[in-house]
Design goal:
Helix content: 25-40%
Structural class: alpha+beta
Radius of gyration: 19 Å
Strand content: 15-25%
Bound molecules: 2,5-anhydro-1,6-di-O-phosphono-D-mannitol, magnesium ion
Shape: globular
Number of domains: 2
Strand order of the largest sheet: 4-3-5-6-7-8-9-10
Distance between the termini: 51 Å
CATH architecture of the largest domain: 2-Layer Sandwich
CATH class of the largest domain: Alpha Beta
């Protein structure tokens, strides 16, 4: 093996290498991913010292959805918004933490062709207890003309139109995983050089896994079909290799990441209390649906492919079933 082929690729090197295959590409998407990687590194530093400094705990406000906002959520939101605003690849953003989308209308940003939606710090209920949390992002090509301020139409596109989607997991090590139509790749942060390095090339979700992830506390609030499927997960079944193992961290990024690598199914169904489920379509369901589909899995709301839902609101919620292809097909036969 030559010295070059042994070399570990950084996130920047990898995106530039991809770019070389497209002579007409402008490099804007690479720039966007570099900006996101930078914000992720800054957030990672704060997440790592969350127990030490007074950044831990409630910021004392509630977000648009009436949920407590933790200080680190605010910090993460500001970091991602800041790098994208000051970068040259993003014309506007939507965030879980902001009531409305934000237009970047300075002369440079207004000429960018992408908009970005993100959940800056998902699983924030886990911050206080040192459990993995994450950032989720979704990138669309705008539908309004370049050079004009972005509008709601740029953000309310169905997930199939995503150009890229990804997540960062702040865990035992910090990883950035992103997918484009060409594949899904994972990068682990090497703290000694402060770079994300390609560690999981061309991720494929196993067709069948042994893990199911769901909040069992809500079991009696789920529809009959969902309850039947969950019941089946706990029984010996030669055709599906059951019984499965139940794993539920309560951080979607960590739960779906594990299932993506090991094979499994993650569910956040509708409940009596939450008839549309809990998770947000635009910055939680859509990006993961895109990533998991690129990796060979499936994602639905129980009736429809997640990526085909046409959104009507920035913060709309959706039930979510996502994971290994054969497990999803078995679930669908119950719904
Ligand atoms: P958040 O965006 O307020 O952090 O909520 C999203 C999180 C997901 O990461 C996780 O899968 C889910 O909420 C867990 O919810 P529950 O505690 O109801 O099972
Ligand atoms: Mg969140």
């Amino acid at each position: 093996m030559s010295a070059i082929s042994r070399k570990v690729l950084t996130l920047d090197e990898f995106t530039i290498l991809q770019l070389r295959n497209f002579p007409n590409a402008t490099g804007e998407l690479s720039g966007l991913l570099r900006d996101i990687g930078l914000a992720a590194k800054r957030v990672n530093v704060e997440v790592n010292k969350a127990g030490l400094v007074d950044i831990l705990g409630d910021a004392g406000a509630t977000n648009i959805q009436g949920e407590d906002v933790k200080k680190l959520d605010v910090f993460a939101n500001n970091q991602f918004m800041g790098v994208l605003r000051h970068g040259i690849s993003c014309a506007g953003i939507g965030s879980e933490e902001l009531d409305d989308f934000v237009v970047f209308d300075d002369p440079v940003s207004v000429n960018s062709k992408y908009v970005c939606l993100f959940d800056p710090l998902d699983g924030s209920g886990n911050i206080d207890v040192n459990v993995s949390i994450g950032t989720i992002f979704s990138v669309f090509r705008r539908v309004t003309p370049v050079g004009t301020p972005v509008t709601a139409a740029d953000f309310l596109q169905p997930g199939v139109k995503q150009v890229a989607a990804g997540y960062v997991i702040y865990g035992s090590s910090t990883m950035l995983v992103y997918a484009t139509r060409r594949g899904c790749n994972g990068f682990t942060l090497d703290p000694s050089i402060g770079e994300f390095c390609l560690s999981h090339p061309d991720i494929k979700c196993p067709e069948l896994g042994k893990i199911y992830s769901v909040n069992h506390g809500n079991f009696f609030q789920y529809d009959e079909g969902v309850r039947k499927y969950i019941d089946g997960c706990q029984r010996k079944n030669k055709s599906n290799g059951g019984p499965y193992t139940q794993r539920y961290i309560g951080s979607m990024v960590a739960d779906v990441h594990r299932n993506l690598i090991k094979g499994g199914i993650f569910m956040y169904p509708a409940t009596q209390d939450k008839p549309n489920g809990k998770l947000r379509l635009l910055y939680e369901c859509n990006p993961f649906a895109f990533i998991v589909e690129v990796a060979g899995g499936k994602a639905t709301n129980g009736q429809q492919r997640i990526l085909e839902i046409v959104p009507t609101e920035l913060h709309q919620r959706s039930p979510l079933f996502i994971g290994s292809k054969l497990m999803m097909e078995e679930l669908e036969s119950h719904l």
